[in-house]
Amino acid sequence: MFDWHVHTHHSCDSQASMAAMARAAHAAGLAGVAFTDHVEWMPGDEATGILKSPAYFAELDELRARYNGEMQLLAGVEVGDSHRFPAETREIVSAWPWDYILGSIHWVDGQPGWEPEMFESGVAVAYARYFDELIALAQGGEYDVLAHFDLVRRDSWAVCRQVLPVEPYAEAIREALRAVVARGKGLEINTSAWSAGLDEPCPGLTILRWYRELGGEVLVFGSDAHRPERVGADFDRARDLALVVGFTRLARFERRRIVGWDALE
Ligand SMILES: [Zn+2]
Ligand SMILES: [Zn+2]
Hints:
9 helices, TIM Barrel, alpha/beta, globular, 7-stranded parallel β-sheet, binds zinc ion, about 20% strand, two-stranded antiparallel ribbon, about 260 residues
């Protein structure tokens, strides 16, 4: 099993070296890990301009040589709002040999999704705005897998101690899911929501069922770890959930293509 969502000190919000995260993945019995450091474009985001690809790849190449194939270390990146910054995204994506691109919505129509102002007009309004933004990313953004599909749940919990059911947003959610399936892209089960205190990961059972019903097949697990001790966290719970929904395998990426599948059981 791989952890497809791990941050390092190449992100503004992590201090961990790639070596520390790789060691943790190895200790957790994982077969591989994708370093998915932040790339953001919004002025005002702390991550904007932080990732330096030459330094990232220099550290990764050295670590790959050290592990010598014992564990797979993948070059990933978590790109925020790529649908709003297509030229900038294309530039970084084409310039470096990425294995895997996570697509995220961290900003909603110019507002930081994790700040109280996002919820000023009410939690329900924030959810609607978030999913509208997600449709645009799903349809027109640059990604292999959408990260934390319903991140607004984690944010509304963190900011307002409220989590709403997703059913009222079914139309928008299904529209985003249809785009993911039509483009041959995938979803992750982001397990960080569990440690944030939610009773489901991002996304949970309902959205995963809709994804499956619409023909969704491409699935990975991501811890969204920013510290070594979180690498691979709650993957046993993610596996149980995926099996309940009817998934039997997880996708494996290399150079932005699916190169294999790992059986879930
Ligand atoms: Zn994210
Ligand atoms: Zn992340």
